[in-house]
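Worked example
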Amino acid sequence: MTANNTAMHNMAIRNTAKALLVSNGRILVNRCVTQEGGVYYDLPGGGQHMLETMEEAVIREVLEETGYAVRVVGFAALAEELNDYLADSDYSEYAHRVIHIFRVETEGGKAGEPTEMDLQQSGSVWLDLEAADREYFVPEQLNGRISQLARSESPLYLGCVRYR
């Protein structure tokens, strides 16, 4: 086995919990800005901690990033990302991500202040579902599918994207 294959076999899979928070035909998303000034959107959420359930992870992450206290009401979708170019980098923990998307509802009105926004996150915004379908999202499996995801009665498998 080559050194590269050894690294690939020792690599952990990062579980990520994301929130689908829809209210009055709008969805809460994180607006993010790249170092080059490009804008993209992401669902609130992030990595699961050791000994934390996926539901606990999404509740914690939404509160940290948006200030909203939420409760999980169901499972919405699953997506996967494989980033070959990250496997031997300082960010190898992001080389294989499984993204669990949960339907959530707010647990009481207004949001507090975010306490721990993502690196490129500039804030959180409410977008019309149809407008969200026209925006650029990460992971890319969400592009053009936000309204479908929001309206689906059953969980969706969004597939796997591999970046080389």
Remarks:
- The chain has a mean pLDDT of 91.
- The first helix runs from residue 3 to 10.
- Helices lie at 3-10, 54-66, 129-133, 146-151.
- DSSP finds four helices and eight strands in the chain.
